[in-house]
Design goal:
CATH superfamily: NAD(P)-binding Rossmann-like Domain
Radius of gyration: 17 Å
Structural class: alpha/beta
Low-confidence stretches: none
Number of strands: 7
Strand order of the largest sheet: 3-2-1-4-5-6-7
Number of helices: 8
CATH architecture: 3-Layer(aba) Sandwich
Largest sheet: 7 strands, parallel
Order of helices and strands: EHEHEHEHEHHEHHE
CATH class: Alpha Beta
Shape: globular
Mean pLDDT: 96
Strand content: 15-25%
Distance between the termini: 28 Å
Number of domains: 1
């Protein structure tokens, strides 16, 4: 198992769900964590759980789509820690609807959080990583960004854009020993997906060759590897975590 003793990781959208699992997994491996989300109660709870593991945790409320809040996030991180070694851009939202029924505000909101957010956070953090001449950036995209999905044109566009963003960032910063990769989760069991109608869940299972839904830990384990020294020769890649739902 990779060890991250002395490393500092920022995980956006880490108050709950997949983001929390990523933060906890990195902490279990030895990293100190900056927990950030718009959910103030959630980030405090996650930070407390990380501290019970003997790691340092900083909870910072932040909307990643707002530049001034992102700047404050980075400032507070550097006030508390000597470096930023790992960035996981996980924060994301959905506002699903068919294209002809989708409000412009729902398009703008999803693109703002899911794509502008990673742009703002990565831009701010990369300036630190370039000075350090090291860093790991992992973006949480989606299988929907690779294959599309009816009723999710805004979400699919944001995640497809994040894939292209990942590859471009990887090329720009490789010479500074900064890698940038993405993961593309498929159907992952979360409290939100657990509420879906049973018929909907059955239909999803039919297109997953492994015939099961993924877990938040499946995503976190892959990110743990991409953030490690062992993944130092991997950059600009998109790793599917979807049980074979989309093979390329």
């Amino acid at each position: 198992m990779a060890t991250f003793n002395g490393k500092v990781a920022i995980v956006t959208g880490s108050a709950r769900g997949i983001g929390k699992s990523i933060a906890m997994k990195l902490a279990q491996a030895g990293a100190d964590i900056v927990v950030t989300d718009t959910d103030s109660d959630g980030i405090r709870q996650t930070a407390q759980e990380i501290e019970t593991l003997g790691r340092k945790a900083l909870a910072v409320q932040c909307n990643v789509a707002v530049g001034t809040e992102v700047a404050e996030l980075v400032k507070k991180t550097l006030d508390a820690f000597p470096a930023i070694d790992i960035l996981v851009n996980n924060a994301g939202i959905t506002r699903d609807n068919l294209l002809v029924r989708m409000d412009e505000k729902d398009w703008d909101l999803v693109l703002s959080v899911n794509l502008k957010g990673p742009f703002l956070v990565t831009k701010a953090v990369c300036q630190i990583m370039m000075k350090q001449r090291r860093g790991r950036i992992i973006n949480v995209a989606s299988v929907v960004g690779l294959m599309g999905n009816a009723g999710q044109v805004n979400y699919a566009a944001s995640k497809g854009g994040l894939v292209a963003f990942t590859k471009s960032v990887a090329k720009e910063f490789a010479s500074r020993n900064i890698t940038c990769n993405a993961v593309a989760p498929g159907f992952i069991s979360t409290p939100m997906t657990d509420k879906l109608d049973e018929k909907v869940r059955e239909n999803y299972l039919k297109v997953i060759p492994l015939n099961r839904f993924g877990s938040a830990d499946d995503v976190a384990n892959t990110i743990l590897f991409l953030a490690s020294d062992e993944a130092g020769y991997i950059t600009g890649q998109v790793i599917g975590i979807d049980g074979g739902m989309f093979m390329r």
